[in-house]
């Protein structure tokens, strides 16, 4: 069809039949669901052409910003003399509290994250003021000239200190199932212990960045590397004292997010927008890596005390978990994160009777935030340690003790928050993995090896995983999409989700291609912007594809329905005789190429654009009674890891890991495998090498990759076998029966932590159970080995 | 990238000559400007990324006279006369380097931010001729962090190209 013909009103009025623009073909579409389609940005990634925020060509006059940081963990600010800063070469404007026209806050909800302090600083690295200069270097150099007078106050830095000081940041929460204390008391066997686990820096390769461009009137356009454009939009509007509709936030892609770009980017965006508003010039704020690591929130470190009663087979009769988290100085997302830790205290186990308590401790450290798993990994880790300890105490195989406790496939058992688990497949998966990984024989071989190896000790660990899918704050489970079909049959896709490398965009595009039955290259994926889809939730909680995929399917479905109605009326056939086939539509006995039907519909005044919406049905949680159905469904995984340690140095290596993971019916197996492997490696980092270390004055001393060790290619296990579970199927009506995959695999790395514990136990001839906290760095492993040997010697004497 | 031009440079700027992706460039460079900043901000070559600015993450890896280097640790002035190859110079869509093709083929990235550095590093690794096994590839690529953890596929891609190049070498011998 010729464009000029379409534009000609006279011809269109008499238009009756569109010829096929291409012959119909019978093959399936290229790139529908359930195919290993390449990441949409692949050709641009390998050529260095993919544009990230810092790569966007800068407008003339762009200013660069630097944030000055507090040197004290807790102090009153007596005075800030910034005269020398203002007079420094290249400085255009210094931004302080007095310059904020709106609200001095960048928090997601609680109003307790000041952009600039109001007389009080509460962590080392807290933003004091900002310098806008002609260059980044000038801004940085000028900030050094500030004279800040502090009156230091006592600082509480760790969970234990905060517990001792009774310094709660948020109200405590408790979940109860039956009478756990009575069950434990009556049990034939009991044990209790404590586990400390460290936090984790996101170390997204692309650091925090925002680039604000002032528009006419109140308008402000912000490029932000964020997982949550709507929240950045709202925060910028709030700080500038303008309506949300004046602010547009856009992000095409991030160089990694992992939760660290959910609430944190609002600070950078607010300051950049403020500078742009005050100077009328575009303003960019890109954090230096060290500043990023010092200033921005991390995974919460936890202390978890547990007590459990069990029978001689290791069957749990009751369990209690007292969780305490270091939240830092402000609430941020800590409420939801610590809730999720509680929601995962049961992992995959029917505890029968349980009490889970949570304390959210205030400390004078950076405000901890979302990180892949959102508290779930911490909740799980203590439970898995407990399972290992039960097995050790009874002299049983940890695999069998776990197996005795799984939620049954047939349902009927409830979690500590009173949700019935109806989709448990964990027993079947674990049995399959034990078989395929030759677990039993390898465990025997490891014991035999250890009996004759005085220095090197091997260990093996198993981890089943059940992870709840949905935002536990129920209203966040909503998403929108916008789909346009243009006259040539090409499709423009937009939705509220953001791309951080996880493959969300390609998966949602596959859904739209499948819905229209057109080749994937006919669907254009476009940057996330608050101007196209409003009021979105963060791309988080593993829910990106579940929510946005459904919203996009609904949008495409609405257009498709209009095309069906049009074709049925036009050709006088029943609607059920309009069938979308690959790249064409069968109408009665005729087949029409998709673009031709689209053109015809356009000429007949059919709307070819639709907004789609989706809200997860049937989920709720009542805080008062600590009960409900907070999750739409559960994702499951299984992992077995084998390690070797050097008992003289603590050096260690993961030599083999076997993983079986449930993604339901995979939308894109290649992308899902990548998420599983990447999540596992990231979890391995959290539990073995990545150590955040603050000194006694509250300064983070591991603030660069020189001191903070992220897994490299060499830390990947020598033998890593990952399979998608071929029986995976989502029992609830999720997008094409797939399951979320972003966060769950991170927790599979707990199997490596279990294996390290097993290897340390071997150093003491399996006589005493090790005290090994996370991360299990070589140093901690060595200390645990020494401790085990000391205790064994004490037993012998 | 910045719109910084020659006028905004300080009097300390010195003239140097670099061949960047095959094109000879005569440039005025302040002595403290790193090669990475020169590429990104003066030359508009934003494929090389600033990850940590400490030479510890590898996102800024480029080839200097064929050898890989962290361009954030190299002062541009000391490379006067050198030949620089960035990711943009290795190949472009439609005319990709075999290593770029292999990275696509093996899904050897997720967020893509480390990818230009990984590929430049991998191209040099193959040329160095030191890596022959997967273990050696992993060891010699451990200066390039991938936070998304796509290491298996990265090593697969490199092994693939390494296999092709050693086959070629054997054929030539």
Automatic annotation (TrEMBL), chain A:
Record keyword Iron-sulfur present: yes
Aldehyde oxidase/xanthine dehydrogenase a/b hammerhead domain location: 47-154
Cofactors that this protein relies on: Mo-molybdopterin cytosine dinucleotide; FAD; Mo-molybdopterin; [2Fe-2S] cluster
InterPro entries, per database record: Ald_Oxase/Xan_DH_a/b, Ald_Oxase/Xan_DH_a/b_sf, Ald_Oxase/xanthine_DH-like, AldOxase/xan_DH_MoCoBD1, AldOxase/xan_DH_MoCoBD2, AldOxase/xan_DH_Mopterin-bd_sf, Xanthine_DH_Mopterin-bd_su
Cross-referenced SUPFAM superfamilies: CO dehydrogenase molybdoprotein N-domain-like, Molybdenum cofactor-binding domain
Molecular-function GO term, any one: iron ion binding
Family the entry assigns: Belongs to the xanthine dehydrogenase family.
Family matches, as NCBIfam families: xanthine_xdhB
Identification of the protein by name: Xanthine dehydrogenase, molybdenum binding subunit apoprotein
UniProtKB/TrEMBL annotation, chain B:
Database matches in Gene3D superfamilies: 3.10.20.30, [2Fe-2S]-binding domain
Pfam families assigned to the protein according to its UniProt record, in alphabetical order: Fer2 (PF00111), Fer2_2 (PF01799)
Transmembrane region(s): none
Cited SUPFAM superfamilies: 2Fe-2S ferredoxin-like, CO dehydrogenase ISP C-domain like
CDD domains (UniProt xref): fer2 (cd00207)
All residue ranges annotated as the 2Fe-2S ferredoxin-type domain in the record: 14-90
Superkingdom in the source lineage: Bacteria
Keywords: 2Fe-2S, Iron, Iron-sulfur, Metal-binding, Oxidoreductase
GO molecular function terms noted in the UniProt entry: 2 iron, 2 sulfur cluster binding; metal ion binding; oxidoreductase activity, acting on the aldehyde or oxo group of donors
PROSITE patterns to which the protein is assigned, alphabetical: 2FE2S_FER_1 (PS00197), 2FE2S_FER_2 (PS51085), ALDEHYDE_DEHYDR_CYS (PS00070)
PANTHER family for the chain: OXIDOREDUCTASE WITH IRON-SULFUR SUBUNIT, OXIDOREDUCTASE, IRON-SULPHUR BINDING SUBUNIT-RELATED-RELATED
Protein's name according to its UniProt entry: Xanthine dehydrogenase YagT iron-sulfur-binding subunit
Species, as recorded: Faunimonas pinastri
